[in-house]
Amino acid sequence: RPASELLAEMTDRSGSDVKWRDGKTAVYIFNAGEDVSALKKAAYSEFIEENGLGPLAFPSLKRMEEEVISMALNLLNAPEGATGAMTSGGTDSITMAIKTARDYARSQGRASGKPNIVLPYSAHLAFDKAALLMDIEIRRVPILDESFEADIPAMEAQIDADTIMVVGSAPNFPYGIIDPIEALGEMCLRRNIWLYVDACVGGYFAPFARMNGVPVPPFDFEVPAVHSMSADLHKYGYCAKGASTVLFRSAELYSHMPFDLDCWSGARMMTPTLAGTRPGGAIAAAWAVMN
Questions:
Q1: What is the pLDDT, as a whole number, of residue 173?
Q2: N or C: which end of the chain has fewer CB within 10 A?
Q3: What is the pTM of this model?
């Protein structure tokens, strides 16, 4: 079939889709306008065939990803030595952070039983999906009735020797409320527990709100107990899908995330995340929009 016919049919099929350009589509579409849209389409198309799996083959993608991560760390008050990687989205970022926290706990002689994660009832279901993959127990704790925030004393009561992570959201999906990350941090420091901040929604929004005078409470790496964070580039970073960032306070923490395998007939395989092939277009579009 001719290309013109196929393109016309796709346009016709989209006629029953939600009218996201009218600003009526939360969650699925984050629209920054035609100029940003044109830029990310051009950048994605320029690198549509390139593959982030091969940093030696495509050093341009490696450099762009490193620069995107550097921008993210700077926005989120990360200390010197912090690092991270791009992923395909928030669920991917959360999954990789959980894998990292689990392996770190094991390296410290913890979580000898079944690992568990303690989180408020409002935390994203991506944590449950990742936990199902890794046979990790999820301990959801009811939130405070009046503020819809995490109930820190109730969460602390759920921590035990097999707890690998405590979670706070910035903000949570159901209510748009930032959990009391600073207070969660104090508790996690006292209990020596990994604190993870799910800022998939707010990570590329809250810093700019703060720059414009909005009183945003501490939620990122400025809280000393925060070990890792996620922030979605394809939400309020307005980048092309799928693009997120998973970030770590130090390279030592990050070192528990990558896969480095050499136990088959083929060549050694090293990947920062679970994905093998990584679309170069998503990396390039993120770099272009962030700049």
A1: 93
A2: N
A3: 0.94
